[in-house]
Amino acid sequence: MRSNGCGGTEYGDTFTAGADCMLRVAPYLVAAILTGPVLAGSLGALIPSFGFLPSLGHDEFGLDAWRALLDWPGIGGSVILSFASGILTAGISLLLALLFLAVFFETRAFVWLRQAIAPMLAVPHAAAAFALAFLIAPSGFLARLLSPWATGWQRPPDLLIVQDEWGLSLMAGLVMKEVPFLLLMALAPLAQIHAGERMRLARSIGYGRISAWFKSVVPALYPLLRLPVYAVIAYSSANIDVALILGPVSPPPLAVQVLRWSNDPDLDFRMIASAGAILQFAVTAGAIALWILAERCIGWLARGWLVSGKRRTGDAGLATLGRGLFPALILASVLGIAALALNAFARVWRFPDALPGRWTLAHWQSVAETAGGPVAATLWIALLTTLLSLVLVVCVLENERQRDVRSGRILEFLIYVPLLVPQIGFIFGLVLLAELAGAPPGGGLVAAGHVIFVLPYVYLSLSEAYRRQDPAWTKIARTLGQSAAGAFWRVRLPMLLTPLLTAFAVGTAISIGQYLVTRLLGAGRVETVTTEAIALAAGGDRRLIGAWALTQAILPVAGFALALAAPRLIWRNRRGMLGGVR
Amino acid sequence: MTSGLCLKDVRITLGGKALLSLDCVIEPGTVLTVMGPSGSGKSTLLSFVAGFLTAPFSAAGRIVLNGADITDALPEARHVGLLFQDPMLFPHLSVGGNLLFGMPPGGRDRLESAGEALDRFGLEGFADRDPATLSGGQASRVALLRLLLSEPKAALLDEPFSKLDRHLRGDIRRFTFERLRDAGLPTVLVTHDPEDAEAAGGPVVELAEAG
C-alpha cells in the first residue's frame, strides 16, 4: 500500500544504493569542508597566540605575543587601515552597483552590462591591481595620455599615488573588483523579487527611475544581498594580494603585516603572527558589526523617506552620475589591461610618450622560459579542485531535488563561511596544524586548500539554475521509460550544460586567483602564475610584471570565453538551449 | 484478465483532508474526463497514476492496468504516458531524437520507423529539426507522437490544449483523441474546459472544490 506517496525520496525510488548514499552524504561533506578547516585553522592561530607552540619549544601559556603585537610600531595604523578599507570599499561598491542597476535596469544597455560582468570578474584580483597601478601611477598610462598637452608634465610628477598611505589606491583597486561581484549577486534575485513589476508600478505612478529603484526594489533586494556585502567587507578588510600591490607599505594593512611576521626567518615571530591573525578576525568582525549597525540606522532613517511620496530625489544628477561612471569603470579596466600589454612589449618607453618608442618580445621570452612549471601547476590545481567542487555541488543540489527539501538555511549560510572569515587568520593556523601533523606542504595540500574557496563560488554560480529547472522534465523522461538515473544523465545534466560550464569557469577563475592559500600551504614550493606575478610586485620590473600579470589574467578569461563559446557551438541547432534555463 | 485502466477505490488526501475519491474502470480507447477547479486534486490524481505522488499528498487504493497492479511500480515500469500543457520537447535533442528517446531500445530501423511516423502525422522531413523552431501545433503533434511511439498502455492528459491558440485547439483536440482511440489506450484527461470534455466523448467526473 502506497500510503505516504513517497518513501522519503522523489517518486519513491532513486539511483543505485551507492549513488544514493553519495547524495545523502554530500551535504554533510560540503558542510565539513566549508567549516572544518576554518574552525581548526582559527584554533591553530588562537592557541599559539597565547604562547603555546610546543613544536618551537613554547609550552607555557602567556600574553607575551599579545604584548609584542600591541607594542609593534604602527599597529594602530594597520588596524585602522584594514577596518576603513573594509567599510569604505563595501559602501562604495554597494552604492555603485545599486546605482548602475538603477540606471540601466531593463534598458538596452542592461544586456551589455550583464555581459561585461563575466570578464570583469574573471580577471584575478592581482592582475586587476597591477592594471590599476600601471594606469594611475605618476608615470602610468593615464599620465602619459594626458602629458604634456594637458598637464604640462615633462617628467613624472613626484606624487605618491600607488601605495598611498591613506590606502585610497588600495580601495580603488578593490572597488573595481567588488562592483562586478555585487552586480552579479544582485542580478540573480531580481526575477525572484519581481523587480520589473515593481519598477513599472512605481514609474507609472510618477516616480523617477532612480527613486523608483531605491524606494521599490532596493528594500526587497538588499536583504538578499546582505551576505555578499558582508563577504565584500571581509575580503576588503583582510585581503593580501591587492594590498601587496596597491596598499601602503608602512604601516601596511594588518593582513600584510601578519604575512610578514609569518614569513620572518625568526620563527618566534610566529607567535606574534598568531596574535595578529586573531586581531584580524576581530577587525573584520568589528567592521561587519559596524556595518550591521549602520544598516539598522539607515533602515530606520529611511522609513519616512520611503513613504514621503516624493517622486524624485536628485534623480537627474544620480542618473547622469551612473551613466558616466559605468563606462568610466569599463574604460579604466580596458586601459589598465592595455597598460599591462604595452609594458609587456615595451623596450624603450620614455615618459610623456603615450606609446613605447621601441618594442621587444624579450620579456615574453623570459616568461616563456620560466612559466611552464607555474602554468602547469596553476592548471592542474584549478581543474582538479573545480571538478571536485562541481561534483560535490551537483550532489548537494541533486540530493535536495530528490528529497524535495531545500538544503536549508544552515548550508546556505555555511557556503559563506570561507568568504566571511579572514583568510590570513585561519590559513596561518592551518599551516601550523599541518606542520604539527607532519603533512608535507605541496601541491596536494594547496589543492585541498583551494577547494575551500572554489566550492562556495561554484555553489553560488550553479544553484539558482539547478533549482529553477522544471521537475516536469524528469516526469516526462520517466514516463518514457527512463530510470531516475537515466533521466538525470540523459535529460537533466545535458539541459544544464550551459550553467555547468559557467560554474566550471567561475571555479577555475577563483582557483587561479588564489594567492595566500597557495603561498602558505605550498610553503613556497608550489609556484602558480599568481604567486609568480605577485612575487614580482616588490621588485618593480614593470616590463616583466606586465607580461606575468597578463599571463595570469589570460588563463581565467580564456576559460570564460570557452565556457561561453562551447554551448553556442554545441547547441548551434538547438535554439531552446541558448535562451536560459527551462 | 480485464483490459483497461482500473482505479480501485482511489482516495487522495492532503494533510489528512480528503480531496477526491474515485472508483472506476476506463476501457481501452475511451477517455475519462476529470473536471474541477484548481486545487481540487485533479492533477494530483494523474501524479498518483503515473507514480509521481509526493508529500504532502497521500493516496490510498489500487491502480490496475490491463490486469496488472501497478500501484507500487516505478514510474518507468508503468507504461503510462503523460501529456502536459506544454509539449515539453527536450530542447537538447532534435525532433527525431525526441521520438527515439521514448521508443523502446533494440529492434532495427528505429530511425526509419520514427520517420514514417512523422510522415503519418503530416510532419515529413521533420526528424532533424530543432524543436524550438516548431509552431505550437507542430510541437503538440510531436509530443503526442513521442508518447505513442513509447508504446504506453494508458495515457494521462493534464490540460494539454489549454495553452494552444483558439483556432488550433479544436483541430489538435480532435486529432489527439482520434489517435489515442486508434491506439486503444485508456485515457484520463483533466481539464476545466467543458469543450474538452465534450470532444473526449467519454464519462465525465466533476470534482467539487476542496474544503
Keywords:
heterodimer; A: 582 residues; mainly alpha; MetI-like fold; two-stranded antiparallel ribbon; 72% helix; disordered N terminus; B: 211 residues; alpha/beta; Rossmann fold; five-stranded parallel beta sheet; four-stranded antiparallel beta sheet; 6 helices; 31% helix
What does this structure look like?
The complex is a heterodimer of chains A (582) and B (211). Chain A is an all-alpha fold and 582 residues long. Chain A has a domain at 64-360: MetI-like fold (Orthogonal Bundle). Chain A is 72% helix and 2% strand. In chain A, strands 1-2 form a two-stranded antiparallel sheet. Chain A has a two-stranded antiparallel ribbon with strand order 3-4. In chain A, strand 1 and strand 2 (58-59) form a beta hairpin. The radius of gyration of chain A is 25 Å and the shape is globular. Chain B has one domain (5-90, 136-206): 3-Layer(aba) Sandwich (Rossmann fold). In chain B, helix 2 runs parallel beside helix 4 and helix 4 packs parallel to helix 5 (166-182). In chain B, strand 7 (154-158), helix 5 and strand 8 (187-191) form a beta-alpha-beta unit. The chains are: A mainly alpha (582), B alpha/beta (211). At the A-B interface, helix 19 and helix 20 of A face strand 4 and strand 6 of B.
SS-based class of chain B: alpha/beta
Q: Structural class, from secondary structure content of chain A?
A: mainly alpha
CATH level-two architecture of one domain in chain A: Orthogonal Bundle
User: What is the terminal-to-terminal distance of chain A?
Assistant: 35 Å
Given the C-alpha coordinates, what overall shape of chain B results? globular
String of helices and strands of chain A: HEEHHHHHHHHHHHHEEHHHHHHHHHHH
Give a concise summary.
Chain A has 24 helices and 4 strands. Chain A is mainly α and 582 residues long. In chain A, a hairpin with a 4-residue loop joins β1 (52-53) and β2.
